Amino acid sequence: MMTRIFQTLLVVIFIAFIASACNTESVKKSSIEIWKLDSLNSINGHSVEKLGQPKVVQTPFGAAVSFDGDGDRLLVDNNPLVDATEFTIEIIFKANDVYPANKEPRVFHIESSDSPNRRITIELRLNDQHQWYLDTFIKSDNSQFTLIDAAKVHPVGEWVHVAMTYKEREFISYVNGEKELNGQVNYLPIPANAKASIGARMNQIHWFNGEVLQVRIAKRALLPKEFRLLKNLTRYDLK
């Protein structure tokens, strides 16, 4: 009798463990959004407002959206960082050599029109040497910080993976999985009604000329080994 009771107890514990693991995995998945830019009307189920004439194009890695740097952008009706206290944003893109016409392009921008003092941006700076360097920015009311270094350059015309992470005031930027810069900033959650602009700054300036393949947003600070968008891409693949 005791053996049977013990066996039953083991089964109950095992089922509870599996259920807990499944629930944890479900929570993890629900806190991550992958935006494949293969449509001009919808991205991961979110409605999109198109400005200009961006185009869906085919690349060696699948569909992407091409922006001409002169009025093209997509405005996604979604804030993927609602209530997030830490986060990671990954993005794969290819920037064209358009200096000096588009030398400060915004690639990705999250902001609410109600709270312009809270925003996140991923942007580039182009130079006259056929190169770009990364500019990632967090602003939260009375605290803000920019990660930028003109010496950390990368060639235009190549596919690249860029990421930014935030946790407990630590703000880090990465290019192709390699840490570039870090700093300290007080981040405050961006309101739920915020939207995401791809291809330009929210106020329709600083247009991006190039192609954007995918964006992945997680409500936790990931390590480079967890950068999903980078896993199947090498430096040689991205060229």
List keywords for this structure.
eight-stranded antiparallel beta sheet; mainly beta; disordered C terminus; globular; 12% helix
Description:
The protein has 239 residues and is mainly β. It starts with a helix and ends in a 21-residue tail after the last strand. The strands form 2 sheets. Strands 1, 4, 5, 7, 12, 13, 14 and 16 form an 8-stranded antiparallel sheet that branches. The chain has one helix at 2-30, and strands at residues 32-36, 42-43, 46-51, 55-59, 62-68, 73-76, 87-95, 106-112, 115-126, 131-140, 143-155, 159-167, 170-175, 178-184, 195-198, 209-218. Strand 13 (170-175) and strand 14 (178-184) form a beta hairpin.
Structural class of the helix and strand makeup?
A: mainly beta
Order of helices and strands: HEEEEEEEEEEEEEEEE
CA radius of gyration: 20 Å
Low-confidence blocks of residues: 9-29, 235-239
Strand content: over 45%
Care to give the gist of this entry?
This protein has 239 residues and is mainly beta. The chain contains 1 helix and 16 strands.
Give the secondary structure arrangement, pairings included.
Layout: H1 2-30, E1 32-36, E2 42-43, E3 46-51, E4 55-59, E5 62-68, E6 73-76, E7 87-95, E8 106-112, E9 115-126, E10 131-140, E11 143-155, E12 159-167, E13 170-175, E14 178-184, E15 195-198, E16 209-218
